Amino acid sequence: MDVEEKFPAQEYSKAKKAQWLGIECKRVLDIGCGYGPYVDNFLKWGADYIVGIDQNTKMIEMCKSKFTGHPKLEFHVQSAIDMSYCEEFELVTAVMTLSNVWKALKSGGEFIAIVPHGNPDIDFTEEAGKKFGAYMKLTSHPPPDGCRAKTIFYDTKQEQIIGEANSTFFYKETYEKSLRKAGFLKIAWKEPHIDPKYIEKYGEDFFRCFRNPARELILHALKN
């Protein structure tokens, strides 16, 4: 497949995610923003202002370089454990991250995360990482709940590694238990949507390493 014909990993679920997130006119905290793969979409979907944090200095440098001088964006090298935001955001998003979100949200605010499917029987593959942008490398299979892992980020056009981050693999039940303990309500899970035009263009087999079951899930919770 020619480089220019590579699947646009950041585009595949744009319309459905925009509708489901309800991000328009909201002040957003993007925890674990990485190199900013979702920031462009957040802006297109109408976010009022976006603050991105990540503990990886290289990732934040990439964000600042890519979005230099944008009036609706700011980026900081910071761990979610150490953040001091207090009731400043209508929406908090996270990719493979869940920590100290409650304090940052206003009452009635929403928390949305894209996390690895917490099913111990799923085998995450390097093939999927190269196609869709990220790969969770586990040290054992099946993985125990709470095991440490490494998430590897790829440039999907060149299939080259552009960054790595330490992460933790949790079962779905652990996410739900932790959110309820913190006071979140109406916890829901949703599989990412793949636009039919991409299935028609690339074929069902192309997405097999990402689906059946989905390697990632969208987690949504409401603060009381």
Would you mind describing this structure in some detail?
The protein has 224 residues and is an alpha/beta fold. It has one domain (3-119, 169-223): Rossmann fold (3-Layer(aba) Sandwich). It has seven helices and ten strands. The strands form two sheets. It has a seven-stranded mixed beta sheet with strand order 3-2-1-4-5-10-9, with helices on both faces. It starts with 13 loop residues before the first helix and ends with a strand. The model is unreliable at 1-5 and 7-16 (pLDDT under 50). Keywords: Methyltransferase, Transferase. This is Methyltransferase domain-containing protein. GO terms for molecular function: methyltransferase activity.
The gist of it:
With 224 residues, this protein is an alpha/beta fold.
Number of helices: 7
Could you give me the name of the CATH homologous superfamily?
Vaccinia Virus protein VP39
Principal-axis shape equals globular
Number of domains: 1
Strand percentage: 25-35%
Strand order of the largest sheet: 3-2-1-4-5-10-9
CATH structural class: Alpha Beta
Largest sheet: 7 strands, mixed
Structural class: alpha/beta
